[in-house]
Amino acid sequence: MSDKQSERQGWLARLEERLFAASMPQLVQGMRNEAATSYREMVRDLATPMAPAFEREVARTLNRGGDRELIPAETLMPEMMQRFDLAAEDFGADETTHFAELQAVCNRCPTVGRCWRAMRGGEGWAKCRGFCPNAEAFEKKMLAVAG
User: Fold this and answer.
1) What phi and psi, each to the nearest 5 degrees, are found at residue 135?
2) Rounded distance, CA 78 to CA 13, Å?
3) Are 116 and 70 in contact (CB under 8 A)?
4) Are 70 and 112 in contact (CB under 8 A)?
5) How far apart are CA 3 and CA 7, in angstroms?
6) How big is the chain by its Cα radius of gyration, in Å?
7) What is the per-residue pLDDT across 45-59, written as a single tens digit (0 to 9) for each?
8) How many Å apart are CA 62 and CA 34, to the nearest integer?
9) Count of helices and strands (H, E) across the chain
10) d(Cα 75, Cα 77) in Å, to the nearest integer?
């Protein structure tokens, strides 16, 4: 293969990659509208394999109000709590109001797409504490449970 052919193949591969990435908004919206159940299952299963461009677009969609596909307190909060070595059972009966407040904060999270990607990527608590609005409360509870 000549250098010119190799260069052309590289150029075509980059073009295909750009076209694939550019089609992601339409693909995600199409799935949301036409295959809503499958899409919802994919988003809620944090282990579902996804192409990086597709995953980025799903995260953007979640940040723009993808609450019909994902309830953060149900899918993301338990995973986030694991990062802090916590579980729902660590909150006693006298803390039900506090736990409900944490769930409400999670459901209104302005960085839900970032959290979703972090939970999918297995990020640890040190990174998550930089964006999770419940991180301080989780850290306090983690210390109380450990203490």
Assistant:
1) -55, -45
2) 40
3) yes
4) yes
5) 6
6) 20
7) 999 999 999 999 999
8) 17
9) 9, 0
10) 6
Residue range 88-136, pLDDT digits in tens: 999 999 999 999 999 999 999 999 999 999 999 999 989 999 999 999 9
- Indicate whether 2 pLDDT > 70: yes
- Cβ-based neighbour number of residue 75 at 10 Å: 20
Length of the chain (residues): 147
Closest by Cα among 126, 28, 27, 116 to 71: 116
How far is 75 from 39, CA to CA, in rounded Å?
A: 15
Predicted TM-score of the model (pTM): 0.82
Place of tokens 């075509």: 12
| AA letter at 112 | V
Q: How far is CA 105 from CA 99, 111, 137, in A?
A: 10, 11, 11
Backbone angles phi, psi at 108, to 5 degrees: -105, 15
